[in-house]
Protein 1
Amino acid sequence: MRIIGPNRLGIYHSEHGLAFRQLPRDSGPVGFVSQGGGHAINFALIGKVTGLRFSTVIGFGNRCDVDAAEVLDYLADDPKTKVVAVYVEGIRDGHRFFNLLKRAAARKPVVMEG
């Protein structure tokens, strides 16, 4: 079993009806990975108001198990995700993360803040 968290808001996957708030059920092209739980929910709520729809939003928090690199790798392979947005506060294995970031960016646009 894998663990997302602690100190996170979880996973929003509109197509499968998995949500941490009252968010749209219609899927969109943006995947968002966020270390900050507040960023994850705020981004999703702004999307709700502005019409921006998400394939997946994952707020992974303090990363006791699943981290940004792993979620980035997932979104790079997800056919429903056409654009990836990333917010990270710290990276454990910079070499691994950078390699996965290059891999993802070769497949689709990636926007990152940290």
Protein 2
Amino acid sequence: MSAYKTKDMGSALKKKGFKFHQSHHTFYVFYFNGKKTNIKTFISHGEKEYGDTLISAMKKQLHLSREEFDNLISCPLKEEKLIEIYLKQGLIE
């Protein structure tokens, strides 16, 4: 499959409704209607690029298929569609 630069992943997440919280990792939490949700992931400071293993873990944290995750990072998946996915899954109301 493909690999993604961590800075590109962070940038894509911020454009789709995620806010970052800094600690020993950079945490990204999804906000819906101005409220924090339980949908979150993190990007390690030590990694410059994520390969298949880390992407697999991240997509599970984000409750997305690999295709949805790829579209999230490469930007065809807009925030509105992401909200639809999460509403269908019952992760947000």
Protein 3
Amino acid sequence: MKITYYVEVVSSWCYWAEPAWADLKQRYAGKVDFHWKIAQMPPEAYPLSKAQTDWFYRRSGTIVRSPFMLNSDWFEPEIKQYVVPNLVAEAAKDFRVTDDRVRLALAHAAVREGRKVGRWDVAVDVAAAAGGLDRAALLKCAQSPEVAARNRASSAEFDALQVNQRPTFLLETNIGDRAVFSGLAKAEPIAAALDAMLSDAAAYAAYTAHYGSTPPPV
């Protein structure tokens, strides 16, 4: 069984969902394969001003009952789409940094520290430090057509799910079951679905052990 987390690096709701993601990874270690992919937001999905960003942060922060407010200083009105932090996070995978540390560092730098991660130099500095990577090599990779193509492809996968909220979690089993949770930032409903899907997959495996994987001929 596997779960794919579709994430936008500077999304506040993705930031709030990270504890749930970490909890699920720990709880289902060895039972579920965990992966993340970029779901790039279109330009119209970003706030239009710093004041608007703060409004969204007050709303999400109170909903999750956070003791701190997120920092909107990363926002730059001249940047219409924040592709840079997403490309840098994706590029780190080419250097065998496939876990969460680089994209988490980028998210923290943006929404907690207010650093301008929409700029190549800032994003690469943060990512290189978090992943122990060569800065020049990471920048070259992040600006490559191959990484841009991967981000477009994963974003298209996200769009094909016909949802528009980030985070989105896609759960899939080897018996063809799928479940999509879009916009949720809590572990409990996802865990309930994982338990049910793992149980069904185990039942199919038990049946196959007794009767085989194909029905008898008519």
Protein 4
Amino acid sequence: MKSKKFAIIVAGGSGSRMQSETPKQFLPLGEKTIIEHTIQKFLDHDAELQLVVVIPEAHLDLWKSLSKKITKNERLTQAFGGATRYHSVSNGLKCIEANEGDLVAIHDAVRPLFSNDLIERCFVAASQDGNAIPATALVETIRKLVPAAKSSEWVDRGEYRAIQTPQTFQYDILKDAYNQLFSDTFTDDASVVEAMGVKVNLVEGERNNIKITTQEDLKLARLLILS
């Protein structure tokens, strides 16, 4: 039986680091808002994919102001977020009717510049290996802070990766992981699954798959969307 595909888009950001009263996911990027670009990428990926968008309840009016082609899409469900990303994803999971072997991708709303190839790569790898976490090699030299010595030290950047989304999982693994009690170490979905003793599998990410959190990020995204 063919696995069903689901995607949960987490849209809980504010405009604080963007220095904007409008939450960053609702800012314009070309002819659409950031979140509309992100949603459309998943809707276009697979005609049967079911999507859940998780927003803070305080942003409901902004959500309703978006194109009805998005907000009223029959394949899309809107849910409210929680106190943390962990709780928001947990709320999103409650909105999907999936079975063992089905696949769930979890993606940041403010990463609108990913490709269809990346979505497919993550779904295929998760189907084979249980999960797929996109990551890119670091290109800059990095140093580790040593507070006790009020200093820093060189580390081998080749041993590190920058983690992206969509982080994609077989549903049964994800469901069990999100039945765990919350921990402050849960910074993304991979860390939640890893806490259960599951090996995390990295797949190649994309340089353009930036997370838009500052004005500089937004300027870069606007250049990339036009290229």
